[in-house]
Design brief:
By secondary structure, this protein is of the alpha+beta class. It contains four helices and four strands, in the order H-E-E-E-H-H-H-E. A four-stranded mixed sheet has the order 3-2-1-4, with helices on one face. It binds zinc ion (ZN). Zinc ion binds next to helix 2.
C-alpha cells in the first residue's frame, strides 16, 4: 500500500444507508416553505378560485389564479393546517406561477404519479420532489395532495369558484336538529 497517495480509506462506511442526508434536505425544504410560504395571500383580481379541505387532518386551502390567455399570470393561496399541506401548496404555487395551463396539468399528473403510484419524480418537479418522502407516511399523502386537488378543480372550472374535499361527501355528520 503506498502511503499517503491512495483514496482516503475510512471515509465511506460500507453497509450504511445510502445517502441518509437526503431526508434531511427534503425536510428542510418542506419546513422552509411552511415557515416562509411563497405566494401566500389571495390574488385580488383572480379569474379562478377553488377551495378544498382534508377533513382527516383538518387542512384547508383556498387557491386563486389570474389567468391571462392560457398562462397562469398570478397565483396565491391561503390556508391552514399541517406543515405538509401548507408547504405543498407553497411549492405548488412556485411550480405553476407564470406557466401555461398545459404545463400545470402535466406537473399535476407527475406529482400525483409520484405520490400515489410511487413513480420516479420527473426533473420538471424540481423541489416538489421533497414531498416524495411523505409516501412513507400514508396517512399524510392526502395532506400533500390537497393543493393539487384544489388546483385540478380550478383548472377544470376555469371560471368562478369551486370546492373540493379529499374525502367523500356522504360521511358528513348531519347538522344538529
Ligand atoms: Zn395535513
Amino acid at each position: 500500500r503506498p502511503p499517503g497517495r491512495g483514496p482516503k480509506a475510512g471515509r465511506r462506511v460500507m453497509g450504511s444507508r445510502p445517502e441518509p442526508e437526503l431526508d434531511e434536505i427534503y425536510r428542510e425544504i418542506i419546513l422552509d416553505h411552511y415557515r416562509r410560504p411563497r405566494n401566500r395571500g389571495l390574488v385580488p383580481d383572480a379569474t379562478v378560485s377553488a377551495e378544498g379541505v382534508n377533513p382527516i387532518c383538518g387542512d384547508q386551502l383556498t387557491l386563486t389564479l389570474r389567468l391571462e390567455g392560457d398562462t397562469i399570470a398570478a397565483v396565491g393561496f391561503k390556508g391552514s393546517g399541517c406543515a405538509i399541506s401548507q408547504s405543498s401548496a407553497s411549492l405548488m404555487t412556485e411550480a405553476i406561477r407564470q406557466r401555461r395551463l398545459s404545463d400545470a396539468a402535466r406537473l399535476k399528473r407527475a406529482f400525483e404519479a409520484m405520490m400515489i403510484e410511487g413513480a420516479a419524480p420527473t426533473a420538471e418537479l424540481g423541489d416538489l420532489e421533497a414531498l416524495q418522502g411523505v409516501r412513507k407516511l400514508p396517512a399524510r399523502v392526502k395532506c400533500a395532495l390537497l393543493a393539487w386537488k384544489v388546483l385540478g378543480e380550478a383548472l377544470t372550472e376555469r371560471q368562478g369558484a369551486a370546492t373540493v374535499t379529499t374525502e367523500a361527501e356522504d360521511d358528513r355528520s348531519p347538522a344538529k336538529g
